[in-house]
Design a protein that fits this description.
Blueprint lengths: L1 H15 L2 H4 L7 E7 L3 E7 L9 H11 L23 E5 L15 H12 L1 H4 L4 H14 L4 H21 L6 E6 L3 H15 L8 E3 L2 E4 L28 E2 H19 L4 E5 L3 E3 L8 E10 L3 E12 L2 E7 L19 E5 H13 L19 H20 L3 H20 L3 H19 L4 H16 L10 H17 L12 H5 L3 H15 L9 H11 L10 H9 L15
Parallel strand pairs: 1-4
Antiparallel strand pairs: 1-2, 3-4, 5-6, 6-7, 8-9, 8-10, 10-11, 12-13
Helix pairs in contact: 1-9, 4-7, 6-8, 10-11, 11-12, 12-13, 14-15, 15-17, 15-18, 15-19
Length: about 575
Amino acid sequence: MLKDCLEIFEKEYKSLGNRLITDSYVLSYGTYILVKNFSNIDILEVSKNNVDSTEDIYHKFCELDYLSKLVSIDKSVDSKKIIHSNNYLSFFVKKENLRPDKNNNVKLTEEIIDNYYDALLNPRIKYKSDKRKKEIYDSIENKYGKVDENKLNKIRLWIKTNIFDLVESVKKDKNYLKIFFDEKIELYNDENQKYLYPNIYNKNDFNVIIDGKNYGLPNDNMQLNEKKPFLKLKTRIRNSTPYLISDDEVLLQKAFFDYLMNKAANGEEVVYISSEKGIHRKTDIPNEFSGYILRIKKGKELEIHDFDTVVNLNTKIKRINVECIIPIEYERHNLKPNLEIGYINNLIKLEKTIDTIFFNKFMCNSYFKEIKNINLSDLVLRDILIRHREGLYTWFYKGRDNIVKQTFSNYSMGIIENSIKNNNYIRAKEQYNLRIAIINYFHGGSNMADKIKVISESLFEKINSIKTKCIQSDEEYYFAVGQLASYFISKNKSKNKNHSLINPILNAQNRKKIMLEIEKLFKKYNYDISYDNNRRFKNLYSMIVGYEVEEKKVNRDLLIGGYLYYSLIYTKSEENENE
């Protein structure tokens, strides 16, 4: 898969070159200095509150910084690892290493500076103990030429003369001071290549020559040393490394990982790559996308947390019809709707709707967070999110809904029950309406909106009847139980209705337990109910007590539907307006 991605990336990289990387490059916090003609300097301070990436100078520093950074600290030009740049045209050092410590010692010394430039003037000295690196450098120097000794020494002198004064005139923090000398970008690129080739492989001990070409183990996303023998490929006799690639391939792979690192630094967590449709973010992914998805994260180096294939990902979906099955009186509660009634035919819109209605806008921001960093105060909702976010991610990012299709009905009901228990009554109604729409989308079958309409009309007629009638089905029974529970709780005299009083009924596993809880509520509130003069209550209560369910399993859908539906007992009928 990585090879396929590299081939796709290579097409764009050949067209744009390093601009593909530097146009979206993010400078780390610190002080950037451009030295012109060894006399004038331009300074750019980059901090949390001072980042203007539109400035020309910012873009110039991006280009120079990218070509001057180390592959890793372990592969520093400076043997003391105090100076962190890779060529004589730039000089990177932490500001704290330029100032005296508590013992009045300064880590950066003139000796370290001289050793840095000596190593760049004659890298063979640095590589004398590594025959392969020396051979690689000899080859690359023949291509790009020797270092300009005169220019190097002029820069060396300028650094030694000015570096310790400069640190006193710039922002005092622990970030980098990065100094660049104003030379052509081509020269920076040549010097960067001379550093990269000997250092880009994980370890040159693993390099082999095949048909005159050098092959080795890439440094990106792979660590192989004697402390990690489990990464070695034991079946290969001559070389036990997991995979080997050529010089051209390793440079391309580095550029690809640098490109991904930029995206991660810019807050992008997912990248889509397709041979037909190129490289995309989630927000601009074309319809019917087939290719690869990479989930990335910025750490000390780029981390790839998921690498998978995507087949025919459609952002357009079969229409989901969100209906107002449970009427909601927003104006009465002085609230605005969060759930839009109508059709949803776009996967991105559906994701945002589920995020808002079910997860209080925590879902989209929590797909990839460490559990400890999900700051959702509702612990029940947090637990549901943590357990089911992988399935939701797979649906919305990869187009595979099989996990959600199997689990959504159960955990969405748990979310609704939790909302009721937390007195989020209006939110519970919105969740119920959206839940039914999504279940119909997945499974089809009978329309819950029509079912509740028929049941509510039938039940309304029965509770208004002069003669007590009978409940005709389990579905009607559970809807009626929800209605009765809602009526009892409406008798609670507290200022804010405590909907958690329905918890025992919601937790009941059979009819017997339900009836015990109904009797408790009746005993609690019967002082406020005129049994003889309240025909609707009398009929409803009598029908519920007199019905025996056929199915053992409690129909929680209709029980909660009845509870959330407007009260039929309080609704006036045309025949009994004066009741």
